[in-house]
Design brief:
With about 725 residues, this protein is an alpha+beta fold. The protein has 13 helices and 33 strands. It has a 14-stranded antiparallel beta sheet with strand order 18-19-20-21-22-23-24-25-26-27-28-31-32-33, with no helix packed on it. A 4-stranded mixed beta sheet has the order 5-4-7-6. It starts with a helix and ends in a 5-residue tail after the last strand.
Length: about 725
């Protein structure tokens, strides 16, 4: 009976429900009212309604009206009620407005600061709460925590009154513990070991030094990149059909570690068969094929193929075909495991440089940039010239960034060259003081500028004072004197240096003019006039070196240099060679008579992640042009911070055993040599790049030799050590 009664009751309710209209009474609408609205005007709400006074009430139209009101983004709840009165049907919309968010805050965050989270969760304040906007903010916050290794962070939100009718949006964060990648596994790999494949990846396992390197973090973008790198690793070693599946991640039971697994299908190794070209052949097929690294019989390598595509694009670009389309077509035989490659070339139209536009140079004049370019307006496009131009601009040392873009010009056969630079400070003011066991108190100051008023003129004024040295120098150089291809420079100086056994004071100046030739060579002709006075000889100085110790040097010099450094101020790649020959003689107004030859070479080679290998070599020779010895103050010495760093300044060279006093006792007197050899090798490691702080390990080797000796590698002195080098941003 109970079951039968229940069934009859359900049927009755069902029939009653569906026999009733959606609203209490259908009929003609006599009035429409809105209640609950505070910020939204009633007229604005009613204007969005399709239901109008005088029309028949329609439940479908009412449903559409509710949807239209929700789309306004102002309401979180809407109800519709009808009231049948004597004069007709009255409809009332009851709305609940969304809260206005005046501020946001975070609760529960310990590992990430509020200000860092605010940068991620960008919520527009003093607007109604937008659920989609909040959902996007939560997604970004979770990503922020994931980047820090907190993959299990729970983030929800609530709103609460903030006083004065305002509402605060609060993100509730439960961070949970940080999770690290414990192990990366591979399945299906037979050719390469797990360790070999892990080295290819950027994602690293957590290790004992992860707190320093930041390894062990899970980043989806980095893992996708690693998948590509693993595939390329196989393709570069001949495995043309290799496949790498996305990493599968599993979490440990204690939810502290992640385990990643890559599934790999290696396939067979392929060799290269025929290498061919078709399409628009620029010169001859044989000439272009000879340029390629991809050779028949070699193991298939995707990297070499891509390098060849770039090489061919550069070759066509040098001939003005800026938009040459080159793509390799690979046909493989799965039975013989041979891959035949055909490079298809569509050269397109030959391009001309229409305009050159320069931006970002707030200080440097346009002409300083344009004169370094290998291209001018209306020149034929050349890829090689563009690369050399960019390198020459970097070599100036005036810019942190140099970017080239070649957008389309006024027609399909022209492009504009847009050059954007980011200038670096080229002026420094340096003032310092210190204490040395060799020189006691040291004071130095200098003002240096490499780009005066943006004209590319460099110069400096420097002063250095200590127990051993008093140095004053004023110098300047214009690499494009009077906007020509000639350079000009001058210097004025007064120096005093206290050697172990005498004091040398000199005053003078120099003038030089130079000219560039070829791409990286330059030659300078210089003249120097210097008055030298030597005094305060110790008892140990032999009479041979006391005679003619003071005099006037009037010297002509010729300098030839080759410079391929990537940056003349802070080089990390390239080389710099310079040979200087100078002669001073009574015929040109001097009392000193000798000639001197110096060769210096600098080499720079980047190693890995900012580590740079630097080496310096010097070879020197000086010879007197009269019957006397080479003046003591012009002879060659080594030792000290700028040569052999492990030795006392000027302590390395030929020696004489000299009595130290009339009462007896002997000591070494280092009188220097007429020949010099010096080699320096350094490994420079960045510590804080922004501050210019680097660690340096070094090895120095060298010696000087007297007139009676020849150059000897067996008699070189050596030292090694390490230190810190600071190229301060403040000078």
């Amino acid at each position: 009976m109970k079951k039968l009664f229940g069934g009859i009751a359900c049927l009755f309710i069902f029939i009653l429900f569906f026999s009733l209209p959606s609203f209490a009474i259908d009929g003609v609408i006599r009035s429409i009212d809105v209640v609950g609205n505070v910020r939204t005007p009633k007229e604005a709400v009613i204007s969005k309604l399709s239901s109008k006074v005088g029309t028949e009430l329609d439940r479908d139209v009412i449903r559409q009206d509710i949807e239209s009101l929700y789309k306004l983004g102002q309401f979180q709840d809407i109800k519709v009620e009808t009231d049948q009165k004597a004069d007709g049907l009255h409809v009332m919309y009851t709305v609940v407005e969304l809260p206005i968010i005046s501020s946001i805050s975070f609760e529960g965050n310990r590992k990430i600061k509020d200000e860092d989270l605010e940068e991620v969760a960008v919520i527009r304040t003093y607007r109604p709460l937008d659920e989609n906007e909040v959902a996007l903010a939560i997604e970004k916050l979770r990503k922020k925590y994931a980047d820090k290794g907190y993959y299990l962070a729970d983030i929800t939100y609530h709103v609460e009154p903030a006083g004065d009718g305002e509402t605060k949006l609060v993100f509730d964060i439960t961070e949970h513990q940080q999770i690290f990648i414990r192990r990366v596994y591979f399945t299906g790999n037979k050719v390469f070991s797990d360790n070999a494949l892990r080295k290819v990846m950027r994602t690293k396992q957590k290790g004992p030094f992860s707190f320093m390197s930041g390894s062990g973090k899970y980043e989806e973008a980095k893992l996708n990149f690693d998948k590509t790198m693993l595939l390329l690793h196989y393709l570069n070693h001949g495995y043309l059909k290799a496949k790498v599946s996305p990493a599968k991640a599993t979490i440990s039971k204690d939810k502290r570690y992640l385990f990643l697994t890559f599934d790999i299908h290696e396939g067979e190794k392929y060799k290269l068969g025929t290498i061919d070209m078709d399409g628009d052949i620029l010169t001859t097929k044989e000439e272009l094929l000879s340029l390629l690294k991809t050779k028949s019989g070699n193991i298939y390598s995707q990297q070499k193929i891509e390098e060849d595509v770039e090489l061919l694009a550069d070759r066509y670009g040098d001939e003005g075909y800026a938009y040459a389309n080159i793509y390799p077509r690979v046909e493989s035989d799965d039975e013989t495991h041979i891959a035949n490659i055909t490079f298809t070339i569509e050269k397109g139209k030959r391009i001309t440089i229409e305009r050159i536009n320069i931006s970002g140079n707030d200080v440097t004049r346009d002409k300083v940039i344009r004169r370094e370019l290998k291209l001018v307006e209306q020149d034929r496009y050349s890829e090689r010239s563009l690369k050399e131009s960019r390198q020459r601009l970097y070599q100036l040392g005036f810019f942190e960034e140099v970017n080239f873009a070649t957008p389309r010009g006024s027609d399909d056969e022209t492009v504009n060259l847009d050059i954007t630079v980011k200038e670096r400070p080229t002026g420094t003011f340096n003032i310092g003081a210190g204490f040395s066991t060799v020189e006691n108190f040291i004071f130095n100051a200098s003002v240096q500028k490499q780009n005066f008023f943006g004209y590319g003129v460099g110069g400096q004024l420097s002063l250095e004072l200590s127990k051993r040295r008093q140095l004053f120098t004023l110098e300047a150089r214009d690499p494009y004197f009077l906007d020509s291809d000639w350079s000009a420079g001058f210097s004025v100086y007064r120096n005093a240096y206290l050697f172990n056994d005498f004091r040398r004071t000199s005053s003078g100046g120099s003038l030089n003019f130079g000219h560039r030739f070829f791409d990286h060579f330059s030659a300078d002709l210089g003249y120097q006039l210097e008055q030298v006075d030597v005094s305060d000889f110790s008892f140990a100085v032999p009479q041979l070196f006391r005679a003619n110790s003071s005099g006037r040097t009037s010297a002509l010099s010729l300098t030839v240099a080759r410079d391929t450094r990537d940056n003349r101020l802070l080089a990390s790649k390239g080389s710099f060679h310079v040979v200087t020959a100078e002669v001073t003689d009574s015929a040109i107004g001097g009392t000193n008579e000798f000639y001197r030859i110096n060769y210096k070479a600098h080499f720079y080679q980047p190693i890995w992640k900012g580590i740079v290998f630097k080496s310096f070599g010097r070879m020197g020779y000086i010879k007197s042009l009269n019957d006397g010895a080479v003046p003591l103050y012009e002879r060659m010495f080594l030792g000290g911070p700028y040569s052999l760093r492990g030795f006392f300044p000027n302590s390395v060279g030929p020696k004489l055993r000299i009595p130290v006093s009339p009462s007896g006792g002997d000591a070494d007197f280092v009188y220097g040599g007429d020949k010099l050899l010096l080699g320096i090798a350094e490994l420079e490691l960045p510590i804080v790049n922004a501050a210019g702080l680097k660690a340096v390990s070094f090895f120095d080797i060298g010696n000087t030799f007297s007139e009676e000796e020849n150059y000897s590698l067996a008699r070189l002195r050596a030292d090694y050590g390490f230190g810190l080098r600071w190229n301060s941003p403040m000078g």
